Amino acid sequence: MNVFVGPPNTGKTKWLQTLDFLLGDPGANPYESAEAEGLAEKYAAAGAVLQIGEDAFRIERRWTEPGAKGKVFVDGEGMPAREFQHWLMEKLAIPVVNFPKGNPMSGQTWPELGFRSLLRHIHRQQRFWGSLVDLQPDAEFHASLLSFLGLADRVYSEDYGALVKLRLEAMSLRAKREQYGQTLNDLAADLLDDDDVSLGVSDTTIFAAQQRLRDTVQKLQDKRMHVLAEASARTIPLAQRSRVESLSYARAEALEALTAVSRKRQAAEERLKDVLTYRKDLADEIDRMARAADAGDILSDLRVTHCPACDQALKAAHDPENCFVCHQRLPDAPEIEGLGVVRLRFEQDRLKGELKEADDLLDVLRRDVKKQASEAWSAEQVLRAIEVELGPARQAVAALAQADVSAIDVALGQAAERAKQMDRVTAALELGKSLTAQVEALEDQIRPLADRVDESFRAIDFDAASQWLEDGMNAYLEALNRERPHTWKHSPVEIDLTRSSVTFRIGRKKWQGALGGTDTLYFLMAYNYGLLSLSPRPETHYPGLAIIDVPGEFSGESVGDKENFIVQPFIDLLNGEALEGAQLIITGSAFTGLTGVHVQTLTHVHIA
Q: Confidence band (pLDDT; 50, 70, 90) for 413?
């Protein structure tokens, strides 16, 4: 136990403030507050020795050295403050976890629980005596406590993080699917009957609407044929009707023939285009082969003179019959020189053969394209002749049935457009099915993961872990009563710890509403005592260090007469064999008469 003793303004708090800065504060210097103005210029650096297990490390901060601001030097090696916190967590064997800020399903990014968050519990500053850990959000306080109790890495496990991520993704997809369904219903309202819309857009309603539309189109087509037949009967003489009918059939056959020929012509032209591209590639490759042969003739006499790795000149091999680079036996010179030429000539011959085949195929394809063009021209001439002969009959029928046919054609056009819209709605329904399939796939991943997470949570004994801290805090309060009877008159401390919250109670009340000023001092000291008592437990991750800056006054009452009294339980705790190597650094105005402690007395009063 180390105590800083001295009257007010002798620098006790500033020493602890410097130590806090050494332990990874990201600021530029340890004296950035207005009341400490000038100290950063007075001092250039600070250092301390950390004993972690059997290893000792010297840490330094150098805030006046160029390029050193924001860095922590560990045994002379500088690292950023955040990296130092990771290094310290690793050395202390405290797992680094990410924890949710509030509701895990809020969608917010989970921040990292760093050493500075834990230090808020280890170092009780003079200005923070209003709560267990002042100005620390509840979620961060809860995560820090779980970390000390050795539960954080089990509560905020990778499985739990993955589960939350999958559930958020599933929720987003469900919301997207619901919104998409509502939008689709609104867009499809003009395409479906009122009865269908009331049931919502689905495969069934769309299929029924399409079937009704097909029936309507068929009726319109039948009506159009009937109108044209009546008009033909009234305008075309009986003797010419058979000729008109035969011409109509001939026109249909000519149209079909022209369509087939056009399709064949297009396919032939596309094939011709592909073969032309292929022939060009072959010709280019042959040109490259020729250039490679020319380059081989020019460069064949060049030899390796320098090492490709170190660029030093190569010495001649001892045995001229071996390669001086790979030291393998050299074959006869003509054989070496001839291998490359043979391979190159073989490739050139192969490419020339393929080029000739391509030229032959091009001749065939050009003749085919010319033939298809000729047949298409003939089919067009036949169709044109039939159209000319049918012209008078068409004009006569059109003059009589134009109004009715036009109205039917407009209705058919509207029906065709409506059918296209229904096809688009059908395609849009597939997207809704895709969203549903994605949700189902996520649910398949969520179920086994949720089972593992639930099983992991059930295996965590939160009550036992909270009991360790309860026992430590109540042991401190009992020690106070032994030192001075009836000091703590309240019920024992009770801690309700779950995977998402923690509550400290005195009896049935929360501690803030149950305690007055002096009792709050005892309670907060008990919290630091309880944390320190966790150090020997192998399951926990409390690092065996407490730093307490006791205020000169607490709730308007001097603390001086209580100093020895509130510190004696810590002395007894640290003297135990289980806490060998643990340390408490505490400030006070006197600490007279204490035994078994190291006292650092400060006497110089600093006056502004």
A: confident
